[in-house]
Design brief:
This protein is mostly beta strands. It has helices at residues 2-29, 129-133, 162-165; strands at 32-35, 43-51, 57-64, 74-81, 92-95, 101-109, 116-123, 142-148, 156-160, 170-175, 181-182, 192-200, 206-213, 221-222, 231-238, 244-250, 256-262, 273-279, 286-292, 295-303, 310-317, 326-342, 348-354, 362-368, 374-375. The chain is built from three helices and 25 strands.
Length: 376
């Protein structure tokens, strides 16, 4: 009996040890581009990434000095890669304002001249989101723009554009956080469009909207809110017919992403519709369109689970988002915010928050060969 009990205990120990080894190996396989503790920052969150005209990858994040909290001393930081993501520069601070919050990076590349425009938001580091929403904060949420004319090597000082992009009766406000787009065809060709969201002061309702520029980012205009509420952080892509699609984080009970289409370059939006294929635990996601073999392809990434921020998944659609027949799970474990990008070699990459115990252990860069994304 004693021998049987000893063997049973030894067997269970071996199983636990094997499980620990598998988890450790999985942790080692996550290719962290930003990781907790790096450069004196407690936490990195809110990934955003673009590829410039020269093929340089610019990976942005919020560097949170003292904790993973959305409030406090937060800087916007950047790493650059000139070899398709194989190697990266040291961490660079793009925007810091002492102990205040500089966040929600939303970059867009102007393909006509190569300039990179970075939209962002600011608030006092001592002001919490709940107090800003309740109109009890010392200051308000503000909108800023930064610009680089040398492939992201240097940046012009942040310039405030709140007056042109935010209504007086809005409290909370967010740019992105994800890349913006430049319209490629039709009447609005060349327009820069940034997905955003806001909260109304009186009703406390959440809405998505877009801001746009027709002069390379010098001047910005505010588009209309979505017709319905209960949506906020959103991502945008151009469809094959030139219409724009907005894909939104959803707060109703369905736990599926909400989508809407614009026929006027992002100024106004059709009624919201749920996409039953794109399940979510209420979290940010990323939508991207690009051409593959001459055809427009939509790509979407998010933690595909209705209850938890786990299971980071990339999906492909070849019919403007009507169906999503191809997918790949990048990380089954904890994961949250993400941003997709097309690499110079034609593969996709996903830049996402992920970890073993929680989603915020670091931000991962993962290249995805198209052959890895399988059909149902």
């Amino acid at each position: 009996m004693q021998n049987a009990k000893a063997l049973y205990l030894k067997f269970n120990f071996c199983i636990l040890f094997l499980f620990f080894c598998m988890k450790t190996l999985q942790s080692q396989e996550l290719n962290y581009l930003f990781k907790q503790g790096e450069s004196g920052y407690k936490c990195f969150r809110i990934p955003a990434i673009v590829s410039t005209n020269s093929g340089t990858l610019l990976a942005f994040a919020e560097a949170r000095k003292n904790s993973c909290s959305d409030t406090g001393d937060i800087d916007l930081v950047l790493k650059r890669s000139e070899d398709g993501g194989k190697s990266w520069s040291a961490l660079e601070v793009v925007w810091s304002d002492g102990e205040n919050t500089c966040g929600n990076p939303a970059p867009v590349v102007d393909k006509t001249n190569g300039n990179i425009i970075l939209l962002s938001t600011w608030n006092l580091g001592t002001d919490h989101e709940k107090d800003i929403i309740a109109l009890k904060s010392q200051d308000k949420r503000r909108v800023f723009m930064l610009k680089s004319t040398d492939d992201g090597k240097t940046w012009l000082p942040a310039r405030e554009i709140t007056r042109d992009t935010k209504k007086e009766d809005w409290t909370w406000y967010a740019t992105g956080p994800v890349n913006g787009i430049q319209v490629q065809k039709g009447k609005y060709k060349g327009r820069l469009v940034i997905p955003c969201d806001h909260i109304e002061a009186v009703s406390k309702k959440y809405y998505s909207h877009a801001i746009y520029s027709d002069d390379g980012g010098d001047n910005w205009k505010l588009g209309n809110s979505t017709p319905q509420d209960q949506v906020n952080e959103c991502t945008i892509a151009e469809l094959s017919d030139g219409k724009l699609m907005l894909n939104m984080r959803n707060y109703n009970d369905t736990r599926v992403r909400q989508v809407s289409v614009s026929k006027d370059g992002g100024h106004s939006w059709a009624d919201l519709k749920g996409d039953p294929a794109l399940i979510e635990p209420v979290c940010q996601g990323s939508l991207l369109s690009y051409k593959q073999a001459g055809k427009k392809v939509l790509v979407f990434s998010n933690p595909a689970n209705k209850e938890q921020r786990i299971n980071m998944t990339v999906r492909l659609s070849f019919d403007n988002g009507k169906t999503w027949k191809y997918s790949k799970v990048l990380h089954e474990g904890p994961s949250a915010y993400s941003n997709l990008v097309v690499l110079p070699n034609g593969n996709l990459a996903c830049f996402y928050e992920g970890g073993i115990k929680n989603p915020y252990e670091g931000i991962v860069f993962q290249e995805i060969p198209l052959s890895d994304i399988k059909g149902k």
